[in-house]
Amino acid sequence: MRALVVDHTSPGHLSLTDVPAPRPAAHEALVRVEAVSLNFGEVHEATRPERPDGTVLGWDAAGVVVQAAADGSGPAEGERVVTLGEAGWAELRAVPAALLGTAPKDADPGALSTIPVAGLTALHVLRRMGSLLGRRVMITGASGGVGRYAVQLAARAGAHVVAISRSAAQADRLRALGAHEVHPEPAAVQQPVSAVLDNVGGQHLVDAFASLSAGGSLFSVGRSSEADAVLAPDALLGDGGRHDRSIRTFFLFGDPTTDFSADLTWLAGEIAAGRLDPGISWRGPWTRHSEAVKVLLDRRLHGKAVLDLK
Ligand SMILES: NC(=O)c1ccc[n+]([C@@H]2O[C@H](COP(=O)([O-])OP(=O)(O)OC[C@H]3O[C@@H](n4cnc5c(N)ncnc54)[C@H](OP(=O)(O)O)[C@@H]3O)[C@@H](O)[C@H]2O)c1
After folding, report:
1. In CATH, which of 3.90.180.10, 3.20.20.100, 3.40.50.300, 3.40.50.720 is domain 2-114+278-308?
2. According to a count of CB atoms within 10 Å of the terminal CB, is the N or C end of the chain lower?
3. CA–CA distance from 159 to each of 136, 148, 210 (Å)?
């Protein structure tokens, strides 16, 4: 089968080549992949010299089950599915039931492929915030893959969504997705917020933390800015209504026993019904992978890059 593998001689550190097909374990379904989406993390991972040539990367993929799991778990042959895991940038992927959601037959695999890392991260972080009804929630890096899902899901949950994007051109789009306010940086936000989903880190994290009301939490998801977050000593004072604030870490794969299947299936249904926007901002056949990788690494992408396997 063909797969997109690490190749340090190529400009994007990836190339299409033939590799052995996966041999599914008894608890794994074999999926014919139709589309994959790229995340900054894994594309950046391919550039690291420690990653040997020939490694198949890729967390997000959507396709059709061509062989159900031998132990009877998971979906039947012919079901359209969205999948999470390792080695997804390949024509075939072996996936356990916990990392696979089912989707309507007519759902667009490209749209489905945007769900796993970005959609699940947004959903799981927002759930950790508790009830969002009537609360002000800030989302930094709101125009990105995680951010767009977070804006939509927070608005659906009844939050007053405060979106942060450096790009003025993204403001209308973010409002259409459900943002009530759009600001270029957290320091521009006047009213306190109850919770923050921070995709950016650095000064964004510092200023977003300062905007939390008493009892509020900031969830540190990513550091797209690649900058250090330096908290001045008085940033940690708890006076003047700033008591009991916290910074919490998050890692989607933190608990390897998590069963994501119900959430993947729900998100797939929402995408298929048009109630969630997958935020695709670059799409093409996987033979054009180097273009997608360049846009992503140059930070020119606002949303998801999708590769169709045709
Ligand atoms: N912890 C986890 O389990 C987990 C899961 C998923 C993702 N992540 C991490 O979370 C982050 C977001 O992921 P993603 O897939 O949404 O990434 P993405 O699609 O690249 O979006 C990141 C957004 O951050 C903003 N941004 C980028 N560079 C910035 C800078 N220097 N200063 C301020 N804002 C900047 C951009 O928005 P604007 O240009 O509109 O400001 C961009 O759209 C990444 O760091 C990723 O590695 C972590």
Report:
1. 3.90.180.10
2. C
3. 6, 14, 20
